[in-house]
Specification:
Elements (H helix, E strand, L loop, with lengths): L24 H7 L2 H25 L3 H50 L9 H10 L1 H13 L3
Helix pairs in contact: 2-3, 3-5
């Protein structure tokens, strides 16, 4: 009888082990809230670099103009990616606040004698559609795509 031994060790990410427990998005957001700040700072830096690159493009010599134009295009794409990441972060925080506000209202109503009600997935989209801040964020994102 021959036994085959697997000599390579399987690397495991501890975040995805069953020992780490269930993922709670609220805890995740609070622990990694610095990422949203980093994305916002990165967006500001990219906008400054794009502004500087556009000025250099206007005053660049003809032989370097094509390289400068490609750099401006690359920076424009990077700014769009960063803007979408920042807008997504804003939208997700507003959605989370809207859901927690609706859950709190439901708990208060239950406390005053209402029967238990568990929110369905379609109801959450109704809550999002009624929140003015989400409309504001999405409309700002749509306006920026035309620039």
């Amino acid at each position: 009888m021959v036994y085959l031994i697997d000599m390579c060790q399987e690397t495991r990410d501890p975040r995805f082990l069953p020992l780490s427990g269930k993922l709670e998005e609220r805890n995740f957001r609070t622990q990694y809230s610095f990422i949203a700040d980093m994305r916002h700072n990165e967006l500001q830096i990219l906008r400054e670099n794009l502004k500087r690159a556009r000025k250099l493009l206007a005053s660049s010599p003809r032989d370097l103009r094509e390289e400068c134009r490609k750099e401006v295009e690359r920076l424009e794409l990077a700014v769009k990616r960063a803007e979408s990441a920042v807008n997504r972060d804003k939208r997700e925080t507003v959605e989370e606040e809207a859901l927690s506000r609706a859950a709190k209202e439901e708990r208060d109503k239950r406390h005053h004698g209402k029967k238990a009600y568990w929110m369905k997935s379609g109801r959450s989209t109704d809550i999002y559609s009624n929140d003015e801040r989400i409309h504001k964020i999405t409309s700002q994102a749509k306006r920026r795509t035309f620039y």
